Write the structure tokens for this entry.
Amino acid sequence: MLNKLILVGRLVENPELRTTNNDKEMSIITVAVPRPFKNTDGEHETDFINCKLFGGVASNTCEYCKKGDVIGIYGRVQNRIIENEDGRRNILEVIAEKISFLSNKK
């Protein structure tokens, strides 16, 4: 079985470093990834994908990247189940294992 993902896109906002309840560094970033094909109007649509980063990956990304920078993400997809008064809800998350700093916005 294989669960690997590669994304290349632009950071939508400046990454912010947070600390989890277990004192782990983490960050949640959003990456704008244009689709490789045009829609019926002849335009490229863009997907906005949230990614979770932990540890050194999170701290380095927050230190060296900012809004508009192009980054490459190597990671995996993870499923999480949330239960609330409305019932159960499945959430798919991208967990980034490695970030490549490709270019900065000029």
Summary: Residues 5-103 form a domain with the OB fold (Dihydrolipoamide Acetyltransferase, E2P) fold (CATH 2.40.50.140). The two ends are 41 Å apart (CA to CA).
